[in-house]
Amino acid sequence: MYFYGTTGVNKDGHLEIGGVDAVELAKNFGTPLYVYDVALIRERARGFKQTFEQQNVRAQVAYASKAFSTVAMVQLAEEEGLSLDVVSGGELYTAITAGFPPEKIHFHGNNKSREELEMAVDQKIGCIVVDNFYEMELLKAICLEKQVKTNILLRVTPGIEAHTHDYILTGQEDSKFGFDLQNGQAENALTAALPFEHFNVLGIHCHIGSQIFETTGFILAAQKIVEKLAEWKERIGFESEVLNLGGGFGIRYTKEDEPIPPSQYVSEIIKEVKKLAGEYLLKMPEIWIEPGRSLVGDAGITLYQVGASKDVPGVRKYLAVDGGMSDNIRPALYQAKYEAVFANRPLAQASETVSIAGKCCESGDMLIWDLPLPEQEDEDILAVFCTGAYGYSMANNYNRIPRPAVVFVENGKATLVVKRETYEDLVRYDLPLK
User: Fold this and answer.
1) Which residues are marked as active site?
2) Which run of H or of E encompasses 134?
3) Buried b / exposed e across 197-227, counting CB within 10 Å, b at 16+?
4) pLDDT digits (tens, 9 = 90+) for 86-101
5) Predicted TM-score (pTM) above 0.70
6) How far apart are CA 70 and CA 403, in angstroms?
7) Does 293 appear as a known binding residue?
8) CATH among 2.70.150.10, 2.60.40.10, 2.40.37.10, 2.40.30.110 for 8-37+297-426
9) 344 and 384 in contact (C-beta within 8 Å)?
10) Residue 330 annotated as lining a ligand binding site
11) 362 labelled as ligand-binding?
């Protein structure tokens, strides 16, 4: 069994997270339940930040809040000295409600509305990542109306796609995000932005993929961008203050995954950018990165009450839980894989192979296929590991199932940070026909 962070087995033989008994968590807060190991989130954040600090490199580590956005999580990010990446008015509003410093907020998205951009400008956030020409003109109009100056980055597609151990060199014109670096779009965007007196063009942003286990893709992206920056310095006189290489740092979901430590990503990125800046006689830019999943993914565990089972002789045994695609849609969307144990007896010897089914009225609602487990007993609590990213944030009310509660655990203390939805919540905004 692989233990993440502070997870272990206590004297009662139960799974323990942050010094708190997982069985007691299920009993006290109900199931399904999202549980976050706060100490592990802090460790991950410090792993990224400290490497920049130790190498005396100017940097911002921005938590990509789309992975898991709540008031408590945003406040935790602030405690750890992180910046914040938001991609919608809702995420920005959450950050504002949490009291997050607006000057450390970066706003992403490929179709920001006028209302969202106005909110960002009014809140004086640190940076708007401009994604396309339509947005640039919209933001120009807002800045003129309000007579304010706004920091921007230009998002580019550098022709690199990366995932796990693979990277692909592409033209990458076919992407909904950003200005293409190769076909002249990015340069056209830059020359349109630079003369506008209400823009302060800080630099360039890219994001090359997700769940990446090697640094090759980041290095190739840096090479392509810095090469272009050298051209722009020569021809346009623009020198980038910021190089944002995005996120996508991988985590371990199953034994098939072999991620590298945050410090290794950062060290190799720093080394390459320093080398390139020296070769092209550019000033060393401030490096920004945007970890999301790698901060919270393996810090999250979802607890479920085990219910019905169905044995199809010679084919498969199904074991159903009281959640499913309404609280974790990733297996249905992406065929995502997870590991799990019974929280009430995590060290018990597996005696059968079962497939974990959700309770939604949907044949595709399967959480885990072919999971080795001990034979089912009454009151079993299933703990599914690494559900901290894109679980709660993608939760839904399919079949009118209320969304689960969220609990933070640290140093033996459990804190409820999101209440469980009720049936009353489900109909709160419904209006009668008459």
Assistant:
1) 361
2) helix 133-146
3) ebbebbbbbbbbbbbbbbbebbbbbbbbbbe
4) 999 999 999 999 999 9
5) yes
6) 14
7) yes
8) 2.40.37.10
9) no
10) yes
11) yes
